[in-house]
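Query form — protein t-SNARE coiled-coil homology domain-containing protein

QUESTION: What is the three-dimensional structure of this chain?
INPUT:
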Amino acid sequence: MDNSPTALFDSYEADFQAFIDTIRQKLDGDAEDSGEARKASLRRAEMELDEADEMVSQMEIEIQGIPQSIRPQYQTRLRTAKADLSRYKKQYKDVQAQVARSSLLSSSSNHAAFTSDEPYGAASDRTRLLAGTAVLEDGTKRLQDSHRIALETENQGADILMNLRQQREQIVNSRDTLQNANNSIERASGTLKGMIRRMYQQRVVTGAIIVVLVLLIGIILYEKLS
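ANSWER: The structure tokens for t-SNARE coiled-coil homology domain-containing protein are given below.
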């Protein structure tokens, strides 16, 4: 598993490019299609635009963790991705408007040709209703996906906060341990200094006693000899 600081950015960028390629195919390659097939293709392109937009958002998040020394080149790639996304969003709106105009003209033509002998002549209305239902279902699915992503992000945030709290507790415990060790060292140092001071005092006392004894012995010997 690649743990480099740019790995996630590269992954999101690759996913974004894959979405852009399929969007380009749907907007450019299906121009000859018409009717419901074309509308279904546009609906899929709209969902993929949403996914591509999500990839750009993830790239914006990941770029914050890239080292400053190499961040400018990734910022350039991010700007290029945003420009591509804006361009295809505009193209999608243009194609959608063209399809809507074509559908409206087709609906008007079919309505003019409708007669009372055709009980299902309002098929265009039924088609629009079905298309509207499909759009609602797609919207519901996108909302569910967005909710799922929000929950996953919230869970990840909670995990990060928990890890940070644990790390903070470890740092506090380590600091307390070091403080206790420092206090123990200071106490031991004070004890050693006291022992050394008493040792020197005992040496002085012992030396004084020896000098007094020598003097006494000398005096005694002097008295006896004299």
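ADDITIONAL NOTE: Residues 112-122 have pLDDT under 50 and may be disordered.
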